[in-house]
Structures are given as C-alpha cells and as structure tokens.
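chain below, 155 aa
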Amino acid sequence: MPMITTSKTGQLLAFVGLVALIGCDQKPPEPKITQLEMMTVHGTCHEDHANKSGDYRGFFTVFRDDTTGQRHIFGSVVKQFDPGTALEAAQNPSEYQPPSEITLYDDDPGATDGTVTLHGTSNTNTPEGEADKGYSSTCTLEILKTETRPPSNPK
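prediction:
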C-alpha cells in the first residue's frame, strides 16, 4: 500500500490556507474612544468662501481614539441672535448672512486652552434624508469653561 507523504512546503501552505480561512470570519475590533474634555466656547465663525463672520456660542468634546492615540474634536456652535443684525438681514434679504449653526470637527486640535481655531461645516436646513450641502467653515473660539472627564476604571 503506498504511503502519502507531504513535504514541509505542503504542510506550510496548508497551515497558511487554514489561517486565512479562519481570519476571514473575524471582524476588525471596534475602535475604543475615550472622552477627555467638554468645552464651552464663544467666538467668531465664517464660511471659508465668505468674508462676513458672525458671533457664535456652543460646545465641543475632545476625545481620543485609544487604538491610534489620536485626539479629535466634535461639537457645534450656534449664531447668537442680535436684533440689529436680524433687522439688517430683513432689510437686505439678498445680502449674505453667516449660517445659523456650524458643526465642528477637527482631527488634530492641538492645545485646547485659551483660544482655538477649529474647522467644520455650516449646517443648512436640508430636508431629512438628503446630504447636507454645508460649506467648509473656520471658527476662532475662546474657551469659557472646561470640564474634564476622569478616566473610567477598567473592570
């Protein structure tokens, strides 16, 4: 009776194939995110295509992607109501007015104390289900209050 033998190369190829099949069912791990700080801010913002800015207030959160160690920012600011500006807008309806809200996001915020310059997108009143057609925007914001979140205890 003939005996079937496999070479070391054949065994290695079989092992690699088995590992590849097992690895196909595994999903990459979900990123772990840690909230570091919550900031209350006030300052000026403008859409990057326009020269006219507005007075804004809002919040943003600084968080860290624990997988990469990179810090990110996400939040929003809302234009403050000013009766004089509202009257001017009503009298000149075709004149550009800064957006009512800007969503902030930044992948490398740098220092988050004093005054920060952040980037985001203006929010337009786009109907639900449609992509927002906002414009790239820049905000220069003074940090009014910082709330630091303590690290959570591992279980």
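The chain is about 15% helix and 40% strand. Residues 8-24 form the longest helix (17 residues).
thats it, cya
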